[in-house]
Amino acid sequence: MIKNLLTRTCTGIVYVSLIMIALYSYAWIFYTVFAVIMFCILKEFIAMMALKNHAVRALPAYIFSLALFTLSCGNVCYGWNVPYSFVAIPIIIVLCVWQLFRKNENPFDAIAYTVFGVLYAALPFCLLIHIIGGSSEMLPAAQLHIAALMFVLIWSNDTFAYLWGISVGRHKLFPRISPKKSIEGFVGGLLSTVILAFFITKFIETPLSAWQWTGAAVVIVLASTFGDLFESMLKRYSGVKDSGTLLPGHGGFLDRFDSVLFSIPTFYIYLQIIQFF
Q: Do residues 146 and 134 lie in contact, with contact meaning Cβ atoms separated by under 8 Å?
């Protein structure tokens, strides 16, 4: 028990440090780190779907993901201004045509799972660079604080929900999907993260007010919870305990980033909405 906790803690420290270094550094470091993370998540998703005989076309999926992420970073950091349709439409067409030359009993299954895998693994990181903005040299500090605080709130909810859950958790939140999650853990994580969001922004300057961060905390906690539950559903469907083994004590990259994959798009939409008020 103690050894496992120590392993999880050490892995968590490395994970948090890597994310912060990727954010508060040069744009090319951000690109490299998150591209690797994106590939690892996609690889684990492909492996899980393969267990249920769902053919995800790995090569098109990797190319599609890298192309979208590269274009996002190029548009934001280097001012490319290239429409995403210039990449998405040709790759989807090629993927569809490719199925004509393969002996596949269900080509539409392959197309659907491949495209979904790309959207699931790549879209959040494409939106992350849009949350930050920036240039080819250094990413802007104020916007970086927004992205960093988003990650902090995600981690806060994960931690407090776990602590409240093991302490006072009695009622199951979603027993069909994740028997270990409790309503008490969810509420405890939500309240703790909201309080943290309100007070932490008193010490870190961002374009958002304390009350806007309070609303962001609610949005992030809800998205994180559903992201975690969705990945649990994928694992239960695939019949695996963990999505992978690359992160000691945490399982795979998908296990570690499941909350992030739902939180980034939701937080991005939240930021767009509050601009009108």
A: no
The HSE-up count of residue 169 (CA atoms within 13 Å, CB side) is 22
For residues 25-63, one letter each, b for 16 or more C-beta atoms within 10 angstroms of the residue's C-beta and e for the rest, the string is eebeebbebbbebbbbbbbbbbbbbeeeebbbbeebbbb
Closest CA to 118 of 40, 65, 55, 39: 65
User: Residue ranges of the domains in the chain?
Assistant: 25-138, 139-277
CB atoms closer than 10 angstroms to residue 104 = 15
End-to-end CA distance of the chain: 49
Among 128, 190, 201, smallest CA distance to 159 is for 190
Identity (one letter) of the amino acid at 217?
A: A
CA dist 249 and 273 (Å) reads 38
How far, in Å, are 52, 105, 184 from residue 265 at the CA level? 28, 34, 26
Put simply, whether the predicted model's pTM sits higher than 0.85 gets the answer yes
Backbone angles phi, psi at 183, to 5 degrees: -65, -40
46 and 125 in contact (C-beta within 8 Å)? no
Find residue 251's DSSP bridge partners: 247
pLDDT tens string 233-248: 999 999 998 888 777 6
Separation CA 94–CA 57 (nearest Å): 12
Give the pLDDT confidence of 191-232 residue by residue, as tens digits: 999 999 999 888 888 889 999 999 999 999 999 999 999 999
Q: 211-241 burial, b for 16+ CB within 10 Å, e for fewer?
A: ebbbbbbebbbbbbbbbbbbbbebbeebebe
In b/e form, how buried is each residue of 105-142, taking b as 16+ CB within 10 angstroms?
eebebbbebbbebbbbbbbbbbbbbbbbebeeeebeee
Residue type, 75: N
